[in-house]
Write a structure and sequence with these properties.
The complex is a heterodimer. Chain A is of the alpha+beta class. Helices cover about 35% and strands about 15% of the residues of chain A. Among the domains of chain A are: about 140 residues, Succinate dehydrogenase/fumarate reductase flavoprotein, catalytic domain (Flavocytochrome C3, Chain A, domain 1, Alpha-Beta Complex), CATH 3.90.700; about 140 residues, Up-down Bundle (Methane Monooxygenase Hydroxylase, Chain G, domain 1), CATH 1.20.58. In chain A, strand 6 and strand 7 form a beta hairpin. The two termini of chain A are about 35 Å apart. The mean pLDDT of chain A is about 95. Chain B folds into 2 domains: about 110 residues, Ubiquitin-like (UB roll) (Roll); about 140 residues, Fumarate Reductase Iron-sulfur Protein, Chain B, domain 2 (Orthogonal Bundle). Chain B is built from 8 helices and 7 strands. In chain B, strand 6 and strand 7 form a beta hairpin. The chains are: A alpha+beta, B alpha+beta.
């Protein structure tokens, strides 16, 4: 463990509530005529990337935007269902910037940076204004005012929503702003591109190497700064609620060029997803948290129960969340509910063909409120469930199980969202900054848009105005070196022609991660995971079968490069979890729990961010530490009993 | 849920790239579970092809939960397979019988050039949006979100239109290869909202002009688009677009006529 001056969070002085205003005033500006002379690469077009690209282009910068899909409108922010938080207090129910800040810090189990979270709460209100102005059709009341609903971890109604498609509507809003600037020639789009390396010149991030996924060609792109808005790495578990193309490659390759990776073990496992049903399965589908408002979670009391759920009488059912957490019941927080489901299936009480599921039952709610009321609230979710599972949840209980959903960890950034590489800024889920060890529902959309619309436009200007940026072209040797490295890796992968497919290796990795680096972790299990991942990595580099060549649309090659990085990230996640000898939020070490199975933090030793430095292939990474100082919130134990 | 294996005979369009010649190729998949999605059947088939050293089938997909709009297969002549309000990724094999033969093709439209096999280039949709599918509200300009009241009924119409996922099923289904349901949904969403209204005339004229230049056809009310749209976008949005277009035609000429009209 070592402290490093590279990890200066650059938190502005002064009282918490004034830090951001003061910082904006203290930041240097680039005058409008000079903005035209700067170029920015934005990788990713989710909420963070699209909002950043559009806003920087409006300010006058020349933006190049890269996305992996066929259109920037398809980034995975689009799949977010529930909503977006803001401290508007339109409901007059006691909300404030201070309360949103406090809830987020507490929800994150006191492992987030206070100053960043406070700024997030401050700009949350501007986000709602901006999105409404762009024509996002948020839900309204009959009088025409915006509607709100409640979400987990809060006692106020501060969540704005657009049916069950809030992420889609916000993303299309941000995308439309981007399209406006594409038409004006201020954004150049590169679709079906994957970033495969970061180019660093004189210590500054100056470009990227990408593959054109259609024709396979490697390309060099130069700019004055690089923004990574490439999302999270949940797909290291193979099965997650992430999209198929979501991956860690852009972030990981930046890590290998000097960007520290912070708290990689902080993973959110969401309790209500449709369970795994076969080896062929490609992804998991989330069922919104809101279902737990009316559904009751239970398992049979007897092992090897053979009766159908509706034939099991009341006395043979264990409504375990209501039993263990009488005051929060079925609305216990995500990390806690997931863990309890795991305890039940570990005890052999799971249901369904795989025994890795629990029931979410609406029988009592339908009896109480009537079928039409329940259909009015959850109709579209019930329909989606029936489409996927082939069972009618109005008649038979849903089967659900926890699944990997979000990663709080990510590349380390300072208050300016700059990584440990000058000029490389990281936004949205790809950075580590705001959610600590557990993210609250409806806060991911807020953070992505806060970073892109309202933070980076100020902090990037300051970077340009206070640093000398030499003229560099793509002929520079750093570009050639990076491109060669990428080419060598793909040549190697294509030359192996082994016996196992990329997906088979990925599935094996996911299995190790889920068993040992998932909902419950132990020293023994984590050590086993590290050794198993190393073995798997060796096999991968000997026996993977990537057909074809690199000169065309070869998605097996694209996947192989991503899995190569997941194998390295998986090992670091296990190591990070091993070194963090405490339980907090989504990180649960079985050695550090109370008698009744709750997480026990160690604020003496671990009230810090662990930021990992890459030191080379086959070498141990170095764990650096940024101490977290709580000056405005008192550290306390979360309890939901 | 059932473990029973189904046997499915696939006839899949294979084409190396836009310039190459394409043809149907037959495949037999005999390990299909009724609980598989249509795309998971393709994953299984592709894994088998890779193991045999053959080129796997390219198809677009990403979120696999019916919202990103990337998946795009013409299944037995129906975009997304014909199940009501369902994308290809949400179509499950229990909708088929063991022994079925299924023909799978890419979206076919002049405006969507083929990339490889079942994947096509839909960037023409982005170009239509670039022609005006936005509100010109630069970051920082916005008034308080509740400054403009929008009746729930209007917000709901806007949301119905905004639910479009831009998959292109409407174009692929239309005998004219028209993108008017896609475009109408965006024009309609922004025209009913007070935020979008000021730019409506210019937006509508520019988007329609761009649509035509991109070689999409015109709408002749077949409504095949509505039948296959996985998000249930209604024809009323095409009607509203036509109304906006007519209005825009008049308002566009107004300033010119003002001086010359007697």
């Amino acid at each position: 463990m070592s402290s490093s001056n590279k990890l200066d969070p650059k938190i502005p002085d002064g009282p918490l509530a004034q830090k951001w205003d003061k910082h904006r005033f203290d930041s240097k500006l680039v005058n409008p005529a000079n903005k035209r002379k700067y170029s920015v690469i934005v990788v990713g077009t989710g909420l963070a990337g699209a909002s950043a690209a559009a806003t920087l282009a409006e300010l006058g910068y020349n933006v190049s935007s890269f996305c992996i899909q066929d259109s920037s409108r398809r980034a995975h922010s689009i799949a977010a269902q529930g909503g977006i938080n803001a401290a508007k207090n339109y409901q007059n129910d006691g909300d404030s910037i201070q309360r949103l800040f406090y809830d987020t810090v507490k929800g994150g189990d006191y492992r987030a940076r206070e100053a960043n979270v406070y700024r997030l709460a401050q700009v949350s209100n501007n986000i709602i204004d901006q999105m409404v102005a762009q024509g996002v059709p948020f839900a309204r009341e009959y009088g025409g005012y915006l509607d709100n609903r409640s979400f987990g971890g809060a006692q106020v109604s501060r969540t704005f929503y657009a049916r069950g498609q809030t992420g889609q509507q916000l993303l299309l809003g941000a995308y439309s702003g981007m399209m406006k600037m594409v038409a004006k020639g201020k954004i150049k789009e590169y679709n079906r591109r994957e970033m495969l390396d970061l180019v660093v010149v004189n210590g500054q991030a100056r470009g990227i190497i990408t593959r054109n996924l259609v024709n396979g060609e490697l390309e060099r792109h130069v700019a004055d700064a690089v923004l990574l808005c490439t999302g999270g790495y949940g797909n290291v578990f193979f099965l997650s609620t992430n999209a198929m193309a979501s991956n860690v490659t852009a972030a990981w390759r930046a890590h290998k060029r000097g960007a520290y990776m912070a708290n990689p073990c902080f993973t959110q496992i969401h309790p209500t997803c449709i369970p795994v049903h076969g080896d062929y399965q490609s992804k998991l589908t989330l069922m919104s948290e809101s279902l737990r408002n009316d559904g009751r979670v239970w398992v049979p009391k007897k092992k090897d129960e053979t009766r159908k759920p509706n034939d099991i009488p009341e006395e043979d059912r264990d409504y375990y969340l209501e039993r263990v957490y009488p005051s929060f019941g079925n609305l216990a927080p995500r990390d806690v509910s997931s863990r309890q489901a795991k305890y039940r299936t570990d005890e052999g009480l799971g249901v369904g063909p795989t025994k890795l599921a629990v029931y979410l039952d609406f029988r009592d709610a339908i009896k109480r409120d009537g079928l039409s009321t329940i259909a009015g609230k959850y109709g579209n979710l019930f329909e989606m469930y029936e489409r996927i599972v082939g069972e009618d949840p109005y008649k038979t209980p849903m089967m659900i199980y926890p699944a990997v959903h979000y990663t709080m960890g990510g590349l380390w950034v300072d208050y300016n969202l700059q990584s440990t590489i000058p000029g490389l800024h990281v936004l949205g889920e790809a950075n580590f900054s705001d959610h600590g060890a557990n993210r609250l529902g409806a806060s991911a959309l807020m953070q992505g848009l806060a970073d892109g619309y309202f933070v980076i436009p100020y902090t990037l200007g300051h970077y340009f105005a206070s640093n000398k940026i030499e003229k560099v072209s793509t002929d520079h040797e750093a570009f050639a070196e990076a491109e060669t490295k990428v080419k060598q890796q793909s040549d190697k992968l294509l030359s192996l022609k082994g016996s196992r497919t990329v997906d088979e290796f990925h599935r094996d990795l996911g299995h190790i991660m889920w068993e040992e680096v998932g909902m419950a972790r132990s020293e023994q299990g984590l050590k086993k995971a590290i050794s198993d991942i190393r073995k798997l990595k060796d096999q991968f580099w000997k026996d993977v079968n990537v057909p074809g060549n690199s000169g065309n649309y070869n998605f097996e090659l694209h996947k192989a490069q991503r899995v190569a990085d997941f194998l390295e990230l998986g090992e670091l996640m296990a190591l990070d979890a091993l070194e963090r000898n405490e339980s907090c939020g989504g990180h649960f070490r079985t050695e550090y729990q109370s008698q009744d199975g709750e997480a026990v933090r160690d604020d003496e030793k671990f009230c810090h961010v662990a930021a990992w430095e890459w030191t080379g292939e086959g070498k141990s990474p170095i764990r650096h530490v940024e101490e977290l100082k709580y000056e405005n919130v008192k550290l306390a134990t979360r309890s939901y009993k | 849920m059932s473990d029973a294996n189904m046997v499915i005979y696939l006839k899949v369009w294979r084409q190396a790239n836009g310039a190459a010649e394409g043809k149907f190729v037959d495949y037999k998949v005999d390990t299909v579970s009724p609980d598989m999605s249509f795309l998971e059947m393709f994953d299984v088939l592709n894994n088998e092809l890779v193991k045999k050293g053959e080129d796997p089938i390219a198809f677009d997909h990403d979120c696999r939960e019916g919202i990103c709009g990337m998946c795009s297969m013409m299944i037995n002549g129906k975009a997304h397979g014909g199940q009501l309000n369902t994308t290809t990724c949400q179509l499950h094999m229990r909708k088929f019988k063991s022994g079925d033969s299924i023909v799978v093709e890419p979206w076919r439209s002049r405006a969507f050039p083929l990339v490889k096999d079942l994947a096509v280039d839909r960037s023409a949709f982005d170009k239509i949006i670039q022609a005006g599918g936005y509100v010109s509200a630069s970051t920082g300009n916005a008034p308080d979100a509740n400054a403009n009241l929008i009746p729930k009924t209007i917000a709901d119409i806007a949301m119905d239109a905004a639910a479009c996922i831009g998959c292109g099923a409407c174009v692929a289904s239309c005998p004219n290869g028209s993108a008017m349901l896609f475009m109408g949904a965006k024009i309609s969403q922004l025209a009913v909202l007070p935020q979008g209204e000021p730019e409506s005339a210019k937006r509508t004229l520019n988007m329609v002009k761009t649509h035509d230049e991109l070689l999409f056809g015109n709408c002749t009310n077949h409504a095949e688009c509505v039948a296959t749209c996985p998000k249930g976008i209604s024809m009323e949005h095409i009607a509203r677009m036509n109304r906006e277009y007519t209005k825009a035609t008049f308002s566009y000429f107004e300033p010119k006529n003002a001086g010359g009209a007697g």
